[in-house]
Amino acid sequence: MSPFPGPLAALIAEFERLPGVGVKSAQRLAFHVLRMPVDDVRRFGQALTQARESLGFCRVCQNISEGETCEICSDPRRRADQICVVAEPKDIAAMERLNEYRGLYHVLHGLLSPLDGIGPENLKMRELIERLRDESMQEVVVATNPTVEGDTTALYLARLIKPLGVRVTRLAHGMPVGGELDYADTATLLSAFEYRREL
Amino acid sequence: MSPFPGPLAALIAEFERLPGVGVKSAQRLAFHVLRMPVDDVRRFGQALTQARESLGFCRVCQNISEGETCEICSDPRRRADQICVVAEPKDIAAMERLNEYRGLYHVLHGLLSPLDGIGPENLKMRELIERLRDESMQEVVVATNPTVEGDTTALYLARLIKPLGVRVTRLAHGMPVGGELDYADTATLLSAFEYRREL
Question: Which of A20, A155, B112, B146 has its CA 20 to 30 A from that of A121?
Answer without folding.
Answer: A20
